[in-house]
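Memo to structure team: turn this sequence into structure tokens by end of day. - J.P.
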Amino acid sequence: MDALDVYGDQLFGRRIRLRVLLWAHTQKEAFNQSEASKGVDYSSSGEVAKELERLVRLGMLRKFGRPSRVGPQNYLRVEHPGWAIAVAARTAVRAGLTDEHDDGRGDDDGAVRLQDVRRDDRG
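Reply from structure team:
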């Protein structure tokens, strides 16, 4: 598993949840459910739709279109403090994971370590 999948699974409960969050964060214009599925490279658009709905309920996306349930469901990213979570998660994923914790069981409680974090006690 790559860092994106590990963070998605361990921190967000589902690998696809983090993928959808990060993809939606990059969208500057309206998009629909099938575009999101392609954007996160996930075959089940229904599962992607569930994650998009979570973002709608949190107020991070606005849903529109489909007045008579015909045509694609459209979404638009709106300004929301929750997007700071996406920024932090993207930074963590880019930093990657360390291997020093891996005992082969995949159930470590210290799966991600920040290297060389120091506290300045000169205060």
